[in-house]
Amino acid sequence: MGFDREAFFAKAIAEARDEHGDVAPPWARYPEIPARSIGWRMGYGESWAEVWHEWLSRAPSDRAWRLAYLKARAGASDLGGVGDVDGDAEAAC
User: Fold this and answer.
1) How far apart are CA 53 and CA 49, in angstroms?
2) Are the beta carbons of 32 and 40 closer than 8 angstroms?
3) pTM of the full structure
């Protein structure tokens, strides 16, 4: 039997969900890993980012939901400049 991607991510997402059913963004889960660190491309940071990305791809895609999700978990300065133009957290959505 081959690798069952769907089963793998279903289990990983179920284990990663918080009490609200959300998965913490990588920078909130592992704040000790700098934004451009190899830790996001190898090891535990990469693993969490993959699970978070898969969970996010299944989450509502509307801008309002995603903005509320980001604002609830990080201030604009915590977004590490990703998509943050002129200090506006909305640009990261």
Assistant:
1) 6
2) no
3) 0.74
